[in-house]
Amino acid sequence: MRFKRILLKLSGESLQGEQGYGIDPKRLSEYAQQVKEIRDMGVQVGIVIGGGNIFRGLQGAGKGFDRVKGDQMGMLATAINSLALSSALGAAGCPNRVLTAIRMEPIGEFYTKWKAIEAMERGEVVIMSCGTGSPYFTTDTGSSLRGIEIEADVMLKGTRVDGVYTADPEKDPTATKYSSITYDEVLEKKLRVMDLSAICMCQDNNLPIYVFNMDIVGNLKKVMEGEEIGTLVHN
Length: 235
Prior knowledge:
The protein has 235 residues and is α/β, with parallel strands linked by helices. It has one domain: Acetylglutamate kinase-like (Carbamate kinase). It has 8 helices and 11 strands. β1 (5-10), α1 and β2 form a beta-alpha-beta unit. α5 runs parallel beside α7 (196-204). The two termini are 22 Å apart. The model has no long low-confidence stretch (mean pLDDT 95).
């Protein structure tokens, strides 16, 4: 097995599935099955999920929302997605718990590093919601922070593309995929892997990022088994 403990970053938009909004039950169930599959292999799994399918703080700020309140709305959106994923994992028979970066006890326990690690070592999937708990930080940065804190071997960034390309493959048909790339190259070439603060944080703390397509069922297990289906970003 390639990694013992992972931080899986999922995008909120991916949860929309083919609906184009909200949470698609089919996509949610597929994600839950994939996570259960690797948890059953003995992998310790921490998850951070975005909230873009419900609300994005930065977009809200562009439409006249106060930035801090907009970001707080985004944090609540991640809590909704986390509960949905928790419910789907429970239905699949996968033990899990939701931890929140803001106190909302009936919804989830207040996050601490040690609570997260203890739960993972017991075999529970830990879903860490509300980003960092502070405004002006994205869930990209939230997942970098959590990945470093829980001492993950890698951050797996599950997206709808199968890795990092020389340009946006959805816009440029000539774009080619990297199998491996350094943080310095990502920064130098201004490749949109994650936001700048997230990349720098991973680079400074030596947390590699593996970018792959999570929307293809079975891909998460393939990554764990060492199949080269994505792009590794590293020092």
